[in-house]
Every structure is written in structure tokens, then in C-alpha cells.
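Appendix B, Record 12. Input sequence as logged:
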Amino acid sequence: MSTTTIGVHRVTLLDKPALEPHTRPQQSRLPVALMYAAMTGLLAVLVASLLVIGVIGLLDDDAASPPAAGVNTAIDVALSEFAIDGDLTAPAGIVSVSVTNAGTQQHDLVVEELDASSPVLDVGDSSELALGQLEAGTYTLFCSVPGHRASGMETTLTVGAAATDGASGESSAAGDHGGHGDDFSDPDAIDAAMVESMLKFPAETEGVGNQILEPEILADGTKKFVLEASVIQWEVSPGEFVDAWAYNGQVPGPQIVVD
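Logged structural output:
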């Protein structure tokens, strides 16, 4: 309050406080800022957790999934006396072999390095031999019937880059097919090879097979034929002997004639 004297009169003026605009009490902004900071941090943690879970899921999928198998290759192989024939090359990947006995005796096919084999096939029978995932390299194929491997039923399956010699176009070892790798693209060469093989037959070897087996005539007229199986030393070519199953000491076995 202030006092002012005017003339002889004294006037007392009362100072009133200045009017302030109507305002509501100001709330502290600190709790709100802390709340936003906490929510932002929680969101960041959730995003990071999702990223970590996604990475772990990808790693688990990679661990659970087998490596890419590459291409699938099917090979046709024919077994005969005494050779293993077919296009015995394949790229690295899953390989299967369709085995057919095209000969006149029982044969099978064994992959030495994989300890895998087909069943023993009768004449004209076929079988599928799944070899699975094969890395690049060479694999030995042979027939496990006694005497057949030594007689020439062994060859090589080549898998991967070594299947061919590249630009040279020369066949690899697998192209030999158990000793049948000669180049017969020339018709004259084919004729010459045929004549040469005919002149060599029959080879002068010990033992004679396919001989007529005479029966024993029983009292009632029944014909009795006796066959005895055994392993003998069979001369497959002059001076080359192998162990072979024989009937009555013969390869091929004796001939039976029945009226």
C-alpha cells in the first residue's frame, strides 16, 4: 500500500496485486519423459530379440537341411560274359545305377569303395542300385560271382570333373568298360576286329564245357541226371586261370538232352 498527500486531503491508495492469467498448476514433465524412454528402450529390445531369433532360426534351418545334393544322374549298366558296359561317367551328386544282366550266366554289380552291391541277377533280370551322394573321384565296379572279376568284369565309374579330359575329348579310364575301350568309329576297324575275334575262336584252352550229360536209366525207365557243383581252375584264355563255379567239372556246365 502507498500514501500520497494532495493538498490538505490524504488519499490512501491500496495497491492490488496485478491480475495474473488463470493458469493450472504446471505438472512435472520428468515422469512422462521417463515413460517414453522406457517404452523406446523396450521397443528396441523387442526388435533386437526378433532379429536374434530370426538369425538363430536361419542357422537352425541351415544345420537341419542337408547340403545341396546337386544333380541326379541315372546310369544304365549291362553285365555280360565278361564285361561291364555302360556310359560310366557322372557329375558329382546323387547317382543311381540301373543294372541289367544281358549275359547267359548270373551276375551282380559291386561298388568296392561304397560297399554297395546289387542282388545276384538271373539272366534278363534288372535291379536299381542307389549309390547316394557321390563326391568327385573314381569308383571300382566289379562282379562278385567267383571267377568273373578276374575274367574281365571290372571297370571304373568316374564322377566329377575327371569324367572327361576336357577339350581333348579323350575318354577317361571309365570309357574302357572292362577292356572294351578300343576306338571302333572306323567301319574297316570294326570289320577287322570282328574277323580277328572269329579267327581266335575257339581258344586253345584246357577243359571243354557244354558236354552232353548221359543219364542213368532206372528200372522203370526214368532218366536220372546227376549234377555236382564245385569250384575249379578254369582257363579263360591260354595260360590265364581263374576260380570258377562248375557243374561236373565243366564251364559251361553239361548239356542235358531230354526226349
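The radius of gyration is 47 Å.
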